[in-house]
From TrEMBL, chains A, B:
Superkingdom of this protein's organism: Bacteria
Functional summary from the UniProt entry: Catalyzes the oxidative decarboxylation of isocitrate to 2-oxoglutarate and carbon dioxide with the concomitant reduction of NADP(+).
Cofactor(s) named in the record: Mg(2+); Mn(2+)
GO molecular function annotations of the record: isocitrate dehydrogenase (NAD+) activity; isocitrate dehydrogenase (NADP+) activity; magnesium ion binding; NAD binding
Residues covered by the Isopropylmalate dehydrogenase-like domain: 12-342
Keywords (A to Z) from UniProt: Glyoxylate bypass, Magnesium, Manganese, Metal-binding, NADP, Oxidoreductase, Tricarboxylic acid cycle
EC number: 1.1.1.42
Reaction catalysed by this enzyme: D-threo-isocitrate + NADP(+) = 2-oxoglutarate + CO2 + NADPH
Subunit field text: Homodimer.
Protein name: Isocitrate dehydrogenase [NADP]
GO biological process per UniProt: glyoxylate cycle; isocitrate metabolic process; tricarboxylic acid cycle
Family in the record: Belongs to the isocitrate and isopropylmalate dehydrogenases family.
Amino acid sequence: MKNAQTNQNNVPITVALGDGIGPEITRATLKILEAAGARIAPEFIDIGEQVYLAGHSSGIEPSAWESLRRTRVFLKGPITTPSGSGYKSLNVTIRKTLGLYANVRPCVSYAPFVKTQHPAMDLVIIRENEEDLYAGIEHRQTDEVFQCLKLISRPGCEKIVRYAFEYARQQGRKKVTCMVKDNIMKMTDGLFYKVFQEIGAEYPDIEQERYIIDIGSARIATRPEQFDVIVTSNLYGDIISDIAAEMTGSVGLAGSANIGDHVAMFEAIHGSAPDIAGQGIANPSGILLGAVMMLVHIRQADVAEQVHNAWLATIEEGIHTGDLRGEQTLQHVSTAEFADAVVARL
Amino acid sequence: MKNAQTNQNNVPITVALGDGIGPEITRATLKILEAAGARIAPEFIDIGEQVYLAGHSSGIEPSAWESLRRTRVFLKGPITTPSGSGYKSLNVTIRKTLGLYANVRPCVSYAPFVKTQHPAMDLVIIRENEEDLYAGIEHRQTDEVFQCLKLISRPGCEKIVRYAFEYARQQGRKKVTCMVKDNIMKMTDGLFYKVFQEIGAEYPDIEQERYIIDIGSARIATRPEQFDVIVTSNLYGDIISDIAAEMTGSVGLAGSANIGDHVAMFEAIHGSAPDIAGQGIANPSGILLGAVMMLVHIRQADVAEQVHNAWLATIEEGIHTGDLRGEQTLQHVSTAEFADAVVARL
Ligand SMILES: CC(C)[C@H](C(=O)O)[C@@H](O)C(=O)O
Ligand SMILES: CC(C)[C@H](C(=O)O)[C@@H](O)C(=O)O
């Protein structure tokens, strides 16, 4: 991003470096975007641990919302929520406050360059992102009994299911699988599946199937090749996206888009990994691939492709951070060296 | 069970053949138990599809409860709950009515005799079996909004966590892993993990760790060898036990025990598979291994060992039902032929 601040054509985006490994991987990503000539003007906001500890129980300052509402595009490093019941998950707060209803998580094999037992896997999880047990409604009934409310609404189901079918059609994908537990939760998960069938009827060109989440997860874990687009509710999506990402070789490889009607947020699917923070060894690929999705979103598909290709070339040449194993050549590098290697291949 | 009905030393057990593949696999199992000289006197009850359709919305007749309360031991074939919101899951009704709080699900590799990518896996999932979203409390708020209540109680957590640690100690296992999502559900899942820590303090001889369920599931799917005993709440346990079982080679290989203070139920972890019912090709191993756990429970460990060894010998010689793949010799047989092969090796 040559002269980012002064070029009027640059798209303003909000950036949060995050906690733990967040600053390392987010800075590495920004460096690559800059070198690729991304036409962006980053505005930095502080969120996460320091903000929580300064007394904002949601982990975000009021002024940060202003930036997000103005730029409408957010590149977010992973953050740490301090433990203790007084702290609400900022990830959830942001998703709900900004109405980011669709969490899009592609999980793709890069075999043979990244070792995986499932070289043919190429699936996308479309996870509902605002409802379910994530609605944040928990109470203490008595000293001994606690409850959490799982909330499923028809508008919520319609939005996510419609999104999944439109996504499949636009990306030329062939099948959408719905995963629910409607044999037990006949009303809530039953509604999700009912809406899937209703809206699915408008997409006769796309194959449709349903799995109960237990055996569906088991199939993802053993035969991920058989899936294409998967649409599911919030908690199931959380679980199966970690499974699918890890099976491609590392949970550190997956980026995601959180899409709303007005704002979109891009991030890695992994957390802030405090155990390896500050060592400069984290894999920046997750947030980098999130940033690639962001570039497509802000209509810089040319730059997105360039960055993606340079990243692929790096991985294919066996230049990997420590979390990855390839079949062939192999050189384990630091976060910064990995970023430099991507830049050199732009 | 020679002269089962007339021998006063035989232990009365309640048996339900179930729906779908249930009758085939349950009869195959009873045949093997009989040939092994199990000292049992089966009492048959009808449950499932026919009972539902005859107007009992829970899928079980009042008289069947009487048998269960008397024998206190239940060998149960998989059953089919008709779809439609009027029918409650009988599995859940039985578990809750009889207070079967601990669902014990061993998932063990039989490599190289059964093909798996994880030859060293040997884990046991201890799943809480009465609470969580399975409490069966769902409502319709408006035409468009549905809710399901996740219920977690301190006594419920204490019972299952205590069971897991006692199980680990008795079986000589080294580690208990707790899986929760307490970064989001701070009260409910938070309580589960708090109780895990409290009770864990009484078992300093056993290694203890916690995983968030998303990355925990991902690790089961990629590195199951690292787990030993896993204790978790109902829905997570449902999902990860299907994953772990499928990874051993087939979900058809896992049996389970549902343990209460007064009654215990033994079953396969898979369902009634109506798509292959009546073809005589289903794998009876799940319910057979459930029956082996039952024999240990009724203090016939000698017979249990004999049946288990004969089953292992059958599998090791490459005699498999159609759902299994071995590395070496391989003969695909029917349900009945498989049972005969086990009997021949008793
Ligand atoms: C960190 C956590 C709140 C979050 C979630 O549960 O959604 C994460 O696991 C994810 O998948 O983005
Ligand atoms: C059939 C179904 C009600 C049951 C469950 O969800 O518990 C099954 O999946 C299991 O794991 O035993």
